[in-house]
Design goal:
The first copy, chain A, is mostly helical. Helices cover 72% and strands 1% of the residues of chain A.
Chain lengths: 298, 298
């Protein structure tokens, strides 16, 4: 490890593992309902960064948590993330035609299939976690399920998406956007490290450190995403950019400016890293990953 | 007990209990995302028959299963049923404006809110089951979750909805419709009795009897629903009827005729009751309920 090429390789390896796991976990396309599975696969097996799974797996590795449990939990988390993208891309929501460098589900299939494929992926996430294949102890499985339902539900990700929809016509300030981010994207990023702590049987002090870390990281990631939207290259990113600008929506960059946003990312990155101090050199990979995922060009 | 008025009262009592439970379990409307909770409440607290909860609670009562566990599981099941109605009513799906005697969620709010409210209810179902409030034994909770995810997912309810969408433009035969029914509505009805068996720690023989019962009941209920669609009174039912006729979709009534469909319902009802023989007089209420729910005028 150490240099950037090695790190990128590691990120790619994790992403591939998650894709293989999802391929095995999503039912094969068969029967008259086969298009449903095809649509679920189209969305979930596409070339995603798998950032949430990456943080789950690398945090879990610090605790020497069982890899199979981590991988299945990461796959469940990615099912939730993917379903949210499928529904978010619908014409009645963000109305996006491209995602991860390919047509969105409602473009490649149709709207009804996109609604159902999202529903199917959301349900599959809980099925994966409930299975005895994930962990031998049902108490661990049920805790992973309860926390995922919290992170993904009306007081978590879905609530954040609701704020995002509502705010399209009204002016947004930094408080509203920060709250929206904490729910819409922050909750699932926090789940990644929290789930790893549950699986790895982390102590309270460690769980608190992970919560602080993922909180700062999640916010930094969103600001980096807004920077990418404002300054990135559409072809490299694989989805339309300047979307907030076009929709006249305020985001961290419109409110803080490009330089202000960059400075905020650096500050949050430093803060995120400080939380990891208690893990000493076991946190090396997580520390490296902070700069890497925040230095976004795609 | 015994006469129809008493029975109707009992059905109403169960429905009210479930509505009260849902009212407590769905987060209150607050924060900028308040419309999300309002939409979830609009859908879930409306005047539904609560047929699935009824079968869950009455089956559980046969085993003297703990009422709180039954009620929370019934509420979770109703969250799943309700979310499926909210998504099914969307313009890109069945495009229905009325449901349970009131405007559908996308009419009362908007489409984006309906998508998110459905997602929120689906996620809430698993949160309810995962909570230690539902049952002290995590192994029971996780089994309830796994079976619900099976019944509701791509190889269950969502798969059935997919077949329903696909078949709009192609001719349907009895086999396709029976398969679609088994997934789309049968899976959740079967879950009602299966979950009660899990909570009540039913023996294998009893679980098999419940599976046979709910399988016949579910199919009979769908045929009765198609009869209602073909012959019912729109005002009493509270939603548009003749929908299949208008869409030119085959259903059990168009394929079997009104008399043939009625005969099939009677046959299945008798078969359903036979499965309950092993429970002797403990099954009295379930036996009564069969005729009652199949004699549908609303």
């Amino acid at each position: 490890m150490g240099d950037e090429a090695d790190f990128e390789l590691r990120l790619k390896e994790v992403a591939d593992k998650v894709t293989v796991a999802l391929d095995q976990l999503i039912p094969p396309a068969s029967g008259p309902e086969a298009d449903l599975m095809r649509a679920m696969r189209h969305a979930a097996l596409a070339n995603g960064k798998r950032m949430r799974p990456f943080f789950l797996l690398e945090t879990g590795a610090m605790f020497e948590a069982p890899e199979k449990t981590l991988l299945r939990t990461a796959a469940a988390l990615e099912c939730i993330h993917t379903y949210s993208l499928v529904h978010d891309d619908l014409p009645c929501m963000d109305n996006d035609d491209f995602r991860r460098g390919q047509p969105t589900v409602h473009k490649a299939f149709n709207e009804a299939t996109a609604v159902l494929a999202g529903d199917g992926l959301l349900t599959l996430a809980f099925k994966i976690l409930a299975s005895s294949e994930t962990h031998e102890d049902p108490a661990v499985r049920v805790m992973l399920i309860e926390r995922l339902a919290d992170a993904a539900g009306a007081r978590g990700m879905v609530g954040g998406q609701m704020i995002d929809m509502l705010e399209e016509d009204s002016p947004r300030d930094l408080n509203t956007i920060t709250r929206m981010q904490r729910l819409k994207t922050g909750a699932l990023i926090s789940y990644a490290t929290e789930a790893a702590g549950i699986i790895g049987r982390a102590r309270e002090l460690e769980r608190n450190a992970l919560a602080g870390f993922s909180n700062d990281l999640g916010l930094a990631y969103q600001i980096a995403d807004d920077l990418l939207d404002a300054t990135g290259d559409e072809t490299a990113v694989g989805k339309p950019l300047r979307t907030d600008e076009i929709a006249g929506k305020a985001n961290f960059v419109t409110l803080l400016g490009v330089d202000g946003a960059r400075q905020r990312v650096r500050l949050l990155a430093a803060q995120a890293k400080e939380h990891l101090a208690i893990f000493r050199n076991k946190a090396d990979i997580l520390l490296q990953s902070v700069d890497f995922v925040l230095d976004r060009t795609r």
